[in-house]
Amino acid sequence: MLQEGAHGKWTVSSSDESTEENSDGEKPSTSSLLDAARGKTSGPQYACSEARKAAHKRKASPLKLSDKSFSTEMPPAGKQRPSQEGLGWCLSSSDEEPEDQKKNAHKETLKEEKCDAPEEHPLNLHKDDELSKNQKPEECNETPSEAQDTWDLLNGGNPFRFFLTKVRGIEQSYNSGALHIKDILSPLFGTLVSSAQFNYCIDVEWLVRQYPQEFRKKPLLLVHGEKRESKAALIAQARPYENISFCQAKLDIAFGTHHTKMMLLLYEEGLRVVIHTSNLIAEDWHQKTQGIWLSPLYPRLPQGTIGSAGESETNFKSDLISYLMAYNSPTLKEWIDLIQDHDLSETRVYLLGSTPGRYQGSDKEKWGHLRLRKLLKEHTSSVAAQESWPVVGQFSSIGSMGVDGSKWLCSEFQDSLVAAGSGVVTLPKCDVPIHLVYPTVNNVRQSLEGYPAGGSLPYSIQTAQKQLWLHSYFHKWSAEVSGRSHAIPHIKTYMRPSPDFQKIAWFLVTSANLSKAAWGALEKNGTQLMIRSYELGVLFLPSAFGLDKGYFQVRGKMLSESNDSATYFPVPYDLPPEQYGSKDQPWIWNIPYTDAPDTHGNMWVPS
């Protein structure tokens, strides 16, 4: 059936029922795993989404502008609703609610066929075609930083301990102060005894290679949410490694995911916690914008210490233990005991997590957006006219928001984002601007990866047409401040800036996309909070950094030095965000783009 809308014409299935609306959209797509078992190796060797498989296919078989042989017919996607001209589109997510799920779209499994992207405008990146097509991203000289550089990072002037990942293909100065996973696992950070990796998508073979040779046989626990075929495939990946064990996160509520991304690193010298936004696959550490919070090195407490010893003013230790206890897993008891035995008092961030469940009473305020609301009410101070400050949400996917903003986004979720101390007046919600940052089609087309970068933005045409009202909230991705305008964001951040965007009342980096599954949704007349997924992030509040004015200044350039670095927060993208223009459209993964080539000279046809 031929359809036409703001994205042009495309062919879709004329099926009477939407397969998207009647599928387990959070279930990983395992067809690539079955192919591998049959000897076919064109796709990734671990569970991934349909969007990711499409990106793999386009990487393996690129379609040039001059190639007239390709078809713009879409893969069967069920009945599509026609769009309304001029109303634009919204975003979708693997975190969507049950009625709007597609195929587990958070799995990031793109294979990068080019490595040495020239450090120039990405529209010239098609010159990379001369490189070996068999080269993998992890083979592109991704080596740890020089020892002195790493030491400076650990002990230098970064009071927030907030970092970005290195990006290949940008001006090298913008990677100063950034980290690769090999840096995090470097012996300079500590002499590793054992580690635990909490994540969503895991390439075991690649992960093992990121550890230094001397640490590769140390005990490694993988905490995951895979089931059935995907779980079997993950275990099979780890079969050659006797040091690897598993903890399966319980996902008892349908369509939930284990989306948390955290490392627990036990050293001879102490303990370190790393909370970040990257999947444990090569592509997520190559040419994407990602965020990392790296804890201090926590020393072991004197033997016999009991009670609340080693707790921080932010209650980070007890909150981390509560989060781990929510897994209800004997496997994690060892790590809970280890955390209890260490001094986490130097932590200056608040932990903000989500765990699956239906919570009532005071338990509601332990998780999700109600946890954010509670922290903001208790630990933010009054700032003149702060009630009119806007809120910003930046993410790589979005769930089903309902027929209008009143269903969740502009009601309970916004109530949490605008929460503040008792001295702040609350304006009617409609008077608080909401800026949602999500990449446009041109952001993807002009990115370092080209169109395949859209595999990490799993927004489908089916969901887009159900939430047209979101169009007015959208803003482009731009990150000149960190040199990452062409590195598609997989980082997720939320903040409350001043109207002139020179100050922020708080900043959150998290695994949580914009969805009810991640943040929770109130039920039973507001008496119950239901959360489907595991998520984890850290919240930066001025009061925890000794600032009594109630805000951070926004650093003008992320790498710039300032007289008081604890005052200036390094927001990793440009403020104020620029609203979509009349010709801008958000990236939708499952329709073709054949009007203009990407930075590698290729087109996008997902079938």
Automatic annotation (TrEMBL):
CDD domains found in the cross-reference section: PLDc_mTdp1_1 (cd09193), PLDc_mTdp1_2 (cd09195)
Transmembrane parts of this sequence: none
UniProt keyword annotations, A-Z: Cytoplasm, DNA damage, DNA repair, Exonuclease, Hydrolase, Nuclease, Nucleus, Phosphoprotein, Repeat
Keyword hit for Aminoacyl-tRNA synthetase: no
Residue numbers binding substrate: K261, K492
Matching Pfam families: Tyr-DNA_phospho
Site for Interaction with DNA, residues: S515
Stretches for region Disordered: 1-150
Organism domain of life: Eukaryota
GO molecular function, one term: exonuclease activity
GO biological process, one term: single strand break repair
Entry annotation: catalytic residues: H259, H490
Comp. bias regions, Basic and acidic residues: 100-139
Any one cellular-component term (Gene Ontology): cytoplasm
Subcellular location: Cytoplasm; Nucleus
Principal location listed in the UniProt entry: cytoplasm
Function, as annotated: DNA repair enzyme that can remove a variety of covalent adducts from DNA through hydrolysis of a 3'-phosphodiester bond, giving rise to DNA with a free 3' phosphate. Catalyzes the hydrolysis of dead-end complexes between DNA and the topoisomerase I active site tyrosine residue. Hydrolyzes 3'-phosphoglycolates on protruding 3' ends on DNA double-strand breaks due to DNA damage by radiation and free radicals. Acts on blunt-ended double-strand DNA breaks and on single-stranded DNA.
PANTHER family given in the database record: TYROSYL-DNA PHOSPHODIESTERASE 1 (PTHR12415)
Similarity annotation: Belongs to the tyrosyl-DNA phosphodiesterase family.
Subunit structure: Monomer.
Name the UniProt record assigns to this protein: Tyrosyl-DNA phosphodiesterase 1
